[in-house]
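Now read the record:
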Amino acid sequence: MAKVSRFSNLNLRFDAVAEQHGILQKSLRDFFIKHTDVRFVGYTLDELKKEQDERLSELDKASSLTILASIEASLRIDYLQRCEDRRKDSVSIRMREIYKNKADRAKIEDDILEVWKQEAALKAIAERAKAAFKYRHWLAHGRYLVPKLGRSYDFEYLVALASEITSRFCL
């Protein structure tokens, strides 16, 4: 198989996303501690706390979207590398079968994670990842419907999931 990857090398690693999230979270907290911004004149401490909580919640959602994009990039890079390297393991063989039909248009949930679900030891992680991508779709498409996700998601959960995926799935 000819070399198919055209990686930009601009994808973010989940640990870099986590570090950025921590910096922004601390900055927001510091901003509200000082509460010198004119827009907060006349706010009570409870109102300031509510405003801070809302901003931190939005940061959590934005960082969650970025970490899920990072997970997708890791899985897609792994998929393409397995197809290029022609490894003999069962995962790589099944991924090359997908590549024959879909090339780089393989779907994360329907194709790539389905291959990982067939590995008994990794089935639970793959299922958690598929469920998390439903959260990503909800975030990315404007959050206009009440989500039916089966659980709540936060940034810390997604960082742990990203760590597990990259350590157990990716080359």
Observations:
- The two ends are 18 Å apart (CA to CA).
- The chain has a mean pLDDT of 93.
- The chain has one domain: 14-168.
